[in-house]
Amino acid sequence: MVQWVVITGASSGIGQVLTIGFSNSGYNVLAIGRNEIALQRTKLLTKNSKVTIVIADLSEESELDKVVKILKVKIKYLIHCVATTEPHLPLTTITRAALEKAINVNVMAPIFLTQKLALYFDAMTRVLFIGSDYIGVNNKIRPNITGSYGISKSALRVAVEYFRHEYKDTAFSFKSL
Ligand SMILES: NC(=O)c1ccc[n+]([C@@H]2O[C@H](COP(=O)([O-])OP(=O)(O)OC[C@H]3O[C@@H](n4cnc5c(N)ncnc54)[C@H](OP(=O)(O)O)[C@@H]3O)[C@@H](O)[C@H]2O)c1
């Protein structure tokens, strides 16, 4: 049986590489992003085009249903690569709207997409959140990365622990890298 992998942030970087790798390994991949041309390019880079593209802004609650609607089968892997390092502004000057936008992409999108897709999880499902070593460890920060990215990646790391705890009686597995 062909298995499904859902990858956010599939139009560039790590998500693109994973999309190509899973597709070339025989998986069906649901590749999500906003940039249709970049997603089509990702698909063209695969050997077998086992990629279904979903154009969605995952920071918008209403756009999450585009992903939910297209799936009809259980998911083997859900891999969250979606993220933004923008805006490149210090916390001393960032606006509330700009910080909310970063948090919407980096934290809310992976949390609420996971929540919605849980419908398609079974005992073999594995969910991976790509984190960052920029998160504050022992109260240390990396001054060369912005507060909005650091704050949101730290929050996502904690969210993964809550998912693990809340789903501990299931066989789903949550991991943060
Ligand atoms: N690269 C690194 O050195 C590094 C280091 C540590 C951790 N990470 C983490 O690894 C993951 C991937 O990083 P990367 O460097 O490969 O990222 P990237 O190339 O910047 O890709 C980010 C992806 O997120 C998508 N995206 C952004 N906003 C979106 C939105 N509102 N709705 C839907 N998709 C959206 C973009 O697609 P569209 O533009 O098509 O929407 C893009 O495909 C991220 O979580 C990042 O924090 C990266």
Characterise the protein shown here.
With 177 residues, the chain is α/β, with parallel strands linked by helices. It has a single domain (4-176), classed as Rossmann fold, CATH 3.40.50.720. Helices cover 40% and strands 17% of the residues. The chain contains five helices and six strands. It has helices at residues 13-24, 36-44, 64-70, 96-117, 147-166; strands at 4-8, 28-33, 51-55, 75-80, 126-129, 173-176. It has a six-stranded parallel beta sheet, sandwiched between helices. Strand 5, helix 5 and strand 6 (173-176) form a beta-alpha-beta unit. Helix 3 (64-70) runs parallel beside helix 4 (96-117) and helix 4 (96-117) runs parallel beside helix 5 (147-166). The chain is globular. Bound molecules: NADP nicotinamide-adenine-dinucleotide phosphate. NADP nicotinamide-adenine-dinucleotide phosphate binds next to helix 1.
